[in-house]
Amino acid sequence: MPLRRRTRRILLGVGALPITLAAVIAVEVQLARRGPDLDDVVLDHDGRVGGDGEALRMVWLGDSTAAGVGASGADQAVPRRVARGLNRPVEVVSRAVSGARIDDVVDEQIPGIAALRPDVVLVSIGANDVVHLTSKASFRSSYRDLVEAVPDGARLVLLGVPDMGAPSRYLQPLRGIAGWRGHVLDSVTREIAREAGALYVDIAGETGPAMRADRARTFAVDRYHPSDAGYALWAQAVLEVVRPSLATRGDGGGDAD
Length: 257
Fold this sequence. Notes:
The protein has 257 residues and is an alpha/beta fold. It contains 10 helices and 6 strands, in the order αββααβαβααβαβααα. Strands 1-3-2-4-5-6 form a 6-stranded mixed β-sheet, sandwiched between helices. Helix 7 (174-196) links the parallel strand 5 and strand 6 (199-201). It is globular and about 50 Å long. The termini are far apart. The model is unreliable at 1-34 and 248-253 (pLDDT under 50).
């Protein structure tokens, strides 16, 4: 075959790759949307954990991970697991809403937070921003707005974006793309925490490997949200970061069970 004809065929093949990849991803997105869904149950996390006495006021903001979607009950989700792990009285308030993005937290969850008089504010956001293609610059700008709105004196804890390449609901190459996008936005969360002097929890690094290794146990039936076992890993990662500043017992608090 003449070199010129061969070169033309190669170029045509290379040019078709982006179109083919886009078509594959579009199909995988549709398959992910048609996957098994969880029951539409809103968990009530609010209330006292840890007995009588002066309580630490803990406010949670964010998306389905802070709302506990995939857990069998509020006691198995992250907010109350973390509260129990501190081994002290804690008053838990959750404003997290499934499906929330960073702008939703700023517009709908932050307003009025000062009236709650929080001692600590924990934020778990970013997964939906990955899925809905929020730009890095927009995510950073909105996250800074969120941080500025947190009341003075409240300890701020930012949970990083989870390992978005771990859920089996996504097929390859969509799973790899989601994982990369999650890493990009997670780097912003880490940056914001450093700027604000907030605590940062590396959720992807601390829980991703274990969840990838045992997806059947650590993910709920929708193959996307964490299960009770997955949230136990999340809570332990949070506790390892927050115990030194929030726990009052000399032993550093309990486990996330």
